[in-house]
Write a structure and sequence with these properties.
By secondary structure, the chain is mainly alpha-helical. It has a domain of 60 residues. Helix content is 28%, strand content 6%. It has a two-stranded parallel sheet. The longest helix is centred in the middle third of the chain and has 12 residues. The two termini are 19 Å apart.
């Protein structure tokens, strides 16, 4: 879903539990710990060369806690990468 809205504007590395082949860089992880394991594994894998900005998102665009699925796309486009140390990808609506 990121390709649909952002194209090649950002580099993506996918950490997945699926063993299905993917067309973009990915790493298969164990099926434990929900998304926290994927986030931690990325940080461990890239600890010595972490980028200045990182965004962790789910593989799906919509969720029960997201009222408007376009909000996350709007949030991506509005990110002020070098202004803040942390920015949530939610709007006032969610």
């Amino acid at each position: 879903w990121l390709n649909l809205f952002l194209g090649d504007q950002i580099t993506r590395i996918v950490y997945t539990r699926s063993t299905e082949p993917l067309s973009h860089p990915h790493k298969i992880i164990t099926n434990k710990g929900r998304e926290a394991v994927a986030y931690l594994q990325y940080i461990v894998d890239h600890y010595s060369n972490l980028p200045s900005s990182i965004v962790f998102v789910h593989g799906h665009r919509t969720s029960w806690h997201q009222k408007d699925p376009s909000d996350i796309v709007t949030a991506f486009r509005a990110l002020q990468w070098n202004k803040y140390n942390y920015m949530p990808l939610t709007s006032e609506k969610t």
